[in-house]
Amino acid sequence: MTTPRYARHDSLRDVTVVVLAGGRATRLASLGSPLPKAMLPIGNQPYIGYLAAHYLRLGATAVRVAAGHRGEAITAYFDTGPWQGSPVVVDVSDPQGTGYDLVRTARAVRTSRVLLVMGDIVVDFDPLALAAHFAAHPALCTLVVSDRSPQNQGALAVRADGLLLASDEAGPDATGYPGTVGARKSSTGAALIDRAALAAVELRTGASMERDLFPRWISSGQMDTFDIGEAFFWDYGTPERYRFIAERPDRVLRLYGPASPGTPIPRQGAPLEPDPSAEGRR
Length: 282
Prior knowledge:
This protein is α/β, with parallel strands linked by helices. Helix content is 26%, strand content 24%. Strand 4 (62-67), helix 2 and strand 5 form a beta-alpha-beta unit. It is globular, with a radius of gyration of 18 Å.
């Protein structure tokens, strides 16, 4: 399947990027690193630096990092060098669930839209095309979906027009939205969300996105998808998967540009494909 093409906005104006980076990285313990996952180096720079610089170059109003385990390292990174004075804010607190952390962080946001991304996932999608899609297909949340996944392969039931009908990750009591399933897709963890929808959610310790946030939007017919097909998507949550991407910094550089704010860097090259040998370790 080819990667779908979309129209694009010219910037991420009125968008705050929220990076979830609070996990304890227990599966990466064998690496022996004192750093949180988002600070693990790819090339000679932490991955979160590539993310933040990329979205600021695209015109995002701000980047807010929801940090937790060893989050002080993330704060220290953005307090130095070219990041001083940049609109990057690091919120360090004990992780209380992905849904809780997202809603808590979004309450400090003043833009009308929140772009959610994961601090340990490399994914080839165009945020400007996502913004244009969000404007053209009104919904409370538009989830970036893929044909490939290391963990939740085919967990999402999607209608032919892109509306998300149900999620296998929502739990047995979740109510979907009626309709005919056109395809099964997988979540990349990235989503563009109406901030008002997040503001309406009650903070509850332990809340997850998949079980507590997404089901309410799905059941109301207000959760859309943005399909990247077979485009590159890499969760580096295990030592093998981290080593794969750490040894290929050119892939991250081609997607995001340098890990420092500055002159816009155009997206380059052909679609990035994973190493087939690494695919077998999923």
